[in-house]
Amino acid sequence: MKGYILETPVGLLVINQKGIVMDNFLSEILNDENLLYFLLNDVKIHEVPLFSEFLEELNKKKYDLVTETKSMKTLLEPFFQGNITISPLDSVFREQRSNLTEILNTIGITYSYDELTKISRRNAKRMSRDLIRESGQNSDVHIINAVGVLENTTKFINSYAIQLREWYGSHFPELSDKLVSDIELYAKIVSIYEKRDAITADRLVSELQVKEEYAKEIEIQAKNSMGGDLTDSQLAAIRIFSKNILVLVDFQKSLEKSVNDILKELTPNLFVLLGTQLTGKLISHANGLDKLAKMASSTIQVLGAEKALFRALRKKTDSPKHGVIYTWPHIRSAKYWQRGKISRLLSGKISICAKVDYFHGDFIGDKILEELEKKIAEIKERFPEPPKIEKKKEMGYSSKNKKELARKKEHHLSKSKYKSGVKKQGRR
């Protein structure tokens, strides 16, 4: 016997082709408002024992069920033993839904069309609230936002570091990035000592834990500095600026530690393979670990290089070899002709690790990294020299391009001759 599963704002109806109700699962009849909610939010359907009883009745009557949606079939399949077919264009659903109030009246439920609409809206709001709550608890959201803030903070620190060096450099130009490359140490020296005359080796060693030889070199440079003298108010402004940079550096460290702890727990394999920054960037660019796990390795390889990829497709040139994964040390330090091969190899391993982390598999990060390093060594050994360039490419253009250039040149010459002819006529 064929039964049509009709989804309504108050529950499920099993009807025949004439619209007669044969079975139902309705929140009003069962006196429980949560039943319909659990039914709609099929993740929690196992919490509703009455639903399994309803399906047992359907199994006893041996229905051949017809449903409009794939989601309803997915919901019923684990419990129902008979056949379930999907038929969204079946005329029975369209005809009987237009008579829904009359059908509900036959089983003792009296609702108007407006009342059914209100119930439907109430259920939709409740589901939306739960979805928003669940998405807010998702660790991916925290990682994406934290990585975005971390990148911006790093940019601000680098930008402010350049300005601080230029500003304080007028007073102590020898304290350059060659002498003090660490911006945190540089900002501490400026904020604590202000004037270069106050910088001594003993104070640097005791207060900033600088190595003695290094501290002596800074002291010598301070004594023999050719920088100009600044007023107390100017030095005070520089000091405040350097303190603000130190606040940003502290914030960067605490945020990086927070992201680090989350990634260790959420993505242990990717964390071991790529580290904090790159793992966070990939999840951020993919817009979530679930999407990263479902991506092909070729997509992961160029993630973050979308502009270059589409430009290459538009102009029919070579596509980019890598996106954000370029910051991985083994790729960045490799020769230019080896980077494409290493990037392709790495993106494949990232794809594996992302899937294992997303589906909560075993920890295999250390084995993957060891295997990857061996293959990278093989690539470097196998391709120590750059590939030889073909003669056509070496000359500049292929035969097809040469013909195109000749045609353009001829067109340009004919155009210039026409313009010169027009000018001569004008002179006459």
Describe the structure.
The protein has 428 residues and is mainly α. The chain has four domains: 135 residues, Nucleotidyltransferase, domain 5 (2-Layer Sandwich); 118 residues, Helix Hairpins (Orthogonal Bundle); 116 residues, Nop domain (Serum Albumin, Chain A, Domain 1, Orthogonal Bundle); 30 residues. It has 21 helices and five strands. The chain has a five-stranded mixed beta sheet, with helices on both faces. Helix 7 runs antiparallel to helix 11 and helix 11 packs across helix 13. The longest helix is centred in the middle third of the chain and has 35 residues.
Question: Which features would summarize this protein structure in a list?
Answer:
428 residues, mainly alpha, Nucleotidyltransferase, domain 5, Helix Hairpins, Serum Albumin, Chain A, Domain 1
Listing every helix as H and every strand as E from the N terminus to the C terminus, the arrangement reads: EEEHHEHEHHHHHHHHHHHHHHHHHH
For the termini, the CA-CA separation is 98 Å
Q: What do we call the CATH topology of the largest domain? A: Nucleotidyltransferase, domain 5
Task: Compute the CA-based radius of gyration.
Answer: 35 Å
Can you count the helices?
21
Question: Judging from the principal axes of the Cα atoms, what is the shape?
Answer: elongated
Measured by DSSP, the beta-strand proportion falls in: 5-15%
CATH architecture of the largest domain: 2-Layer Sandwich
